[in-house]
Amino acid sequence: MAFGTQDEPDEVMNEINMTPLVDVMLVLLIIFIITVPVMKHAVNIDLPQASSERELTRPETIAFSIAADGSYYWNDQKISDADLPARMATEARKTPQPELHIRGDKDVRYERVAQAMSAAREAGLSKIGFVTEPQAR
Predict the structure, then answer these.
(1) CATH number of the CATH domain containing 65
(2) pTM of the prediction?
(3) How far apart are CA 18 and CA 58, in angstroms?
């Protein structure tokens, strides 16, 4: 055997022909593209729809006012000192717990405000706030 050109008929071809290999690979690729979605093993069921947003359930607010003469008002209705602890205990058991907004007259004795706060704390109310009015300029 002589080392010469490839034009000689007896000489062995030493390069691989890539065209048939590429054709086979393309056919296999097409077969896999078609059969993979068909082979999906899943049971079709109707799932319930749910949102991931939090529910904004605002707790109710109780407008608790103390007048200048020391009388208590529960949501603009006068309430006696004897009924106050029972009413606060009832509200403390609610879920979500309501917010107690205390509005005290500027001329009321601090003792009356402290008594109301003490009754709220003993009843188990934990969300207590004071409502004030901005100063006029």
Answers:
(1) 3.30.420.270
(2) 0.57
(3) 71
